[in-house]
Predict the 3D structure of the following.
Amino acid sequence: MIVLGIETSCDETSVAVVVDGKTVLSNVVLSQIDIHKEYGGVVPEIASREHVKGVTLVFDQAIKKAGISYSDIDLVAVTEGPGLIGSLLIGVSAAKVIAMNYQIPLIGIHHIAGHIYANNIERSIEFPCLALVVSGGHTELILMKEHYDFVKLGETMDDAVGEAYDKIARILELPYPGGPQVDKLASLGMDIYHFPRPMIDTDDFNFSFSGLKSHVINFHHNMKQRNLEIDKANFSRSFQDAVTDVLVRKTKSAAIKYQVKQVIVAGGVAANRGLRAKMQDQIQFVPVYFPAMQYCTDNAAMIAAAGYFKYNKTQQADNMYLNADSRLKLN
Amino acid sequence: MKKSFLINNLNDMNRLAELVSKTVKPGYIIGLQGTLGSGKTTFTQFLARHIGIKDNVNSPTFTILKVYKGEIPLYHMDVYRLENIGYDYELDDFIYGKGIAVIEWYTYIRAMLPDEMMEILIEVINETNRIVTIEGSGTYEFAIKSISDRYGN
């Protein structure tokens, strides 16, 4: 089954062609990152305008690269939410145009389901499976007992982990996007400040990063006021170790409790090298998988992969009234 | 009217949020200003609990807006990224909606907001202590007076 995937939930315009939820024929991503850089984050209205500018070109390239024509497509899968509403609507509208014009079934996909299915591209997901979803907007532990079945075990009570990274990067005056910068610096430093590990010993699967963020910002502020030099590498490492200790500990206990066959990490923060290393090091009783770097960040191949499995399971397409929902819930 | 409140710990912040919650009605607009980590989201979490929101209120930074259902809905916004832009028309329906709009970093979109609103500034004294200043005119004056009478200090 040839699936056309479309993803425009934030600041990447992406279209992909994927066969049977696995074989990627093309995955074209047009990033707006340089445009949003000067604002220190994605600006919704600018994102929408950029999607409009880029979307036709991205479609053309994805089809051409895949070596198919639109009439070969069996299913159109599009991110329906969550995300920025203006951005989502452009992807959903474009998807409808293709589906309507070529009379292809259309299916709406939850963005996080896409990130999880990014892990099915290079290997197959085995059940039960535990997914740690970590990004700028999400920090969740999700249990999957079968394809396209998601049970949320826990989530962040306040800030998402990627957001905490961006805010720490801001006080260290690192360029946007801050997460990868902190990760890079952390690899050069040591955990000499030993910041608190919030909620590390609670027996639920929830997280909290706001208290840690405030603590780290206060600490930075006090050092500055006393004219003490802050070593950015040690500071980054101390922050990163606090965050990854909590993520790994909770993931590990959930993996034990639910006796999963594999652990997968999904979302933009899955690209974090410190997290990758610690996960592999501390969870050895089941395999821990990360998507390849190009499938960690937003892309349409993962949406096409998720679309294939959702359609296979439900045997049902959405109708042409499919709408974007910026606050869509998984399930 | 403008009143300042000394906050010595999280309990004080909770109490202040509770007093604010007693004054809210549909269409209320509350702006929050304060540095990173000063407690804007924490204040909103307390406020949400006191107006009867059952869901976990977490940070809206990434999506800019989060909507919570309740007897009166809560529209929680973080407009930090709109600093050099000053507006986002997608937010209009929520700022001027039927719920309570709580807007972190509201000064960045001041021109989009009405003159009459509750403006809250959180200043950091040290790790636990804050000075919270609440300012407002028109219908908000009465609310601030009632908060001040009850909070004491």
In short: The interface with chain B takes residues 38-46, 82-86, 136-137, 155-160, 162-163, 167, 170-171, 210, 213-215, 217-218, 221, 326-327 of chain A (CB under 8 Å). Chain A has a mean pLDDT of 95.
